[in-house]
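Fig. S4 source data, part A: sequence.
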Amino acid sequence: MAKKKETKKETKSILTKSSHEFLRNYLNNSSPTGFESTGQKLWIDYLKPYIDDYFFDNYGTAVGVINPKAEFKVVIEAHADEISWFVNYITNDGFIYLRRNGGSDHMIAPSKRVNIYTDKGIVKAVFGWPAIHVRDAAKEEPPSLKNIFLDCGCNTKKEVEELGIHVGCVITYEDEFMVLNDRYYVGRALDNRVGGFMIAEVARLLKESKTKLPFGLYIVNSVQEEVGLRGAEMITHTIKPNVAIITDVCHDTQSPMMNKISSGDLACGKGPVLTYGPAVQNNLLKLIIEAAKGNKIPFQRAAASRATGTDTDAFAYSVGGVPSALISLPLRYMHTTVESVHKDDVENVIKLIFQSLKAIKNNHDFKYIKK
């Protein structure tokens, strides 16, 4: 008797049509460091049906709250800001030189289209670059902050200024969201608006599953991570949480030119990455690992030395020490306009945060050394 062919069982997606629409709109919206307000309003508007209350702090960090009267407070957090540029100098013949706002990569800039944000609205511009025909191959000059420039179609400094452009105007790339081979979400600023998307989806799942939490849950979308974890630093003092679970991106190391020896062996499609390091509280990490194993959620492991380089550090070392842990999403081509994450990993990060929250009991004892 012939054996029946085994077919792979399709796992139903936890994301809805509305989820995907929000993801596309949220990623296409700009949210440069220090100018995150439009993205934060978009995020809060999506979150409102799933929370009891919300607020913004003085610098724009957005917080949705479930059970706001509860004494025990748990944070799930991502950061909202994206890397960008500032106008730094306008030449007499109308070209614009720049200064970084966060870790913007000068190597990818030539030939990119950008939006310059002014009081008169968005002005379009391009990063110009000399044609290959006129460059000296023997003395090829690589892109740097000294030679990359914007061209907004003007011939004089006066024309540039008449468009509303001045020193301090912020600039973002124009590239938009796409899906690659039905596997990868691709676009600029997935670092880390995809994190904001994931924690918003956790709130949706809690509401739709009618999960009752025995603590206050603070869904935090922080500003200014790209310039020193500043938003997280500020909001920790405001909320004074008992526990914090942070989500951010980390490097997929499978593509060419990546070094597994220094960066670890991490792959898109193989699940969330859980980090070991001084800022990560071991008891909370253990709870998350048990939640992953108990719910058959694949995960990977990474090690950090002095710091994770994420908002985990800001939460961990604030207000007397907040037990904190980091759940990372593997990402290819960080700080470019084609940042890429695997759809399965996005869903598994959402599931892991959701199941970890369900595992936290009221007044859970996360003390590292118990009496």
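Fig. S4 source data, part B ends here. The chain has nine helices and 17 strands.
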